[in-house]
Amino acid sequence: MSDATLQLLLMETRRLADAMERLAGPAPAANDLSSADCFVWSPARQYLQPVPKPNRIALKLIQGVDHVRDILHENTLRFAEGFPANNVLLWGARGMGKSSLVKSVHADVKASTGAALKLVEVHREDISSLPALMDILKSMPERIILFCDDLSFDHDDTAYKSLKAALDGGIEGRPDNVLFYATSNRRHLLPRHMMENEQSTAINPSEAVEEKVSLSDRFGLWLGFHKCSQDDYLAMIDGYAAHYALDLPVEKLHHEALEWATTRGGRSGRVAWQYIQDLAGRQRKPISHD
Fold first, then answer.
1. Smaller CB count within 10 Å for the chain: N or C?
2. CATH fold for domain 33-225
3. 31-66 tens-digit pLDDT
4. Which of 75, 35, 67 has the alpha carbon at shortest distance from 219?
5. CB-side exposure of 235: number of CA atoms within 13 Å?
6. What is the CA radius of gyration of the chain?
7. Sorting pLDDT into bands at 50, 70 and 90, what band is 228?
8. Cβ distance 43 to 135 under 8 Å?
9. Where are the domains of the chain?
10. What is the pLDDT of residue 195?
11. What are the CA-CA distances from residue 184 to residues 14, 211, 213, 232 (Å)?
12. What is the rounded distance in angstroms from the CA atom of residue 117 to the CA atom of residue 132?
């Protein structure tokens, strides 16, 4: 065989090898949970992307949800200490601090216990990849909370079956080191019209509805968040203003905050935070998440 022919064969072999690598996609990345406290799941790379500076606030600044805050904190504390705990669904009114509470409770429990407690966010569109993620996490020594924000399912969406399988864990059971927290505006995660449609077209309507509603039953704790009262809203405002040293007489502070809420169509934790950002900007004072 001539040198020219050999060279051509080597080039063709390299070309075929490169083509096979492209078809196979990127190799799974090496995951190191010691690199951060919070991560975002990237299913394409099978990678837990570290989040060096999570977007969260101090737990003491979350006002008006004391009862559910304490329940979530206790559940998380048990889990961090290695004791049994429940999957949690935080549902209800928009802007009342559901996702903020999850992140703040995680930070508070980790700080108070020193446990290797990690928070991994799973995007709604990646729910179908949960079984693969569970397979990666089950062999890790850390305690891990999987978190999905604004979780819900629409018509013809079958991803909820992957969630059910992940929560139950199939024949192996859910890994002892993994817990699932989700927030949603819907108590049953599925729109009413979707459940009613399933009921009207099924051979056994009651079984069809039971199949849909049973998804929520996989969460041992349901924590409801309702629209806040004026007193709760103003307590949020006062807490933020004191924490960030914003100077304004209480009467004027409350008047402005209530007027702000009126222009936004209602009171909520999110609206309170938006007003505080506006006030801090006017006073030229920096605000940073703790």
1. N
2. Rossmann fold (3.40.50)
3. 899 999 999 999 999 999 999 999 899 999 888 888
4. 75
5. 12
6. 24
7. confident
8. no
9. 33-225, 230-282
10. 47
11. 50, 19, 14, 21
12. 20
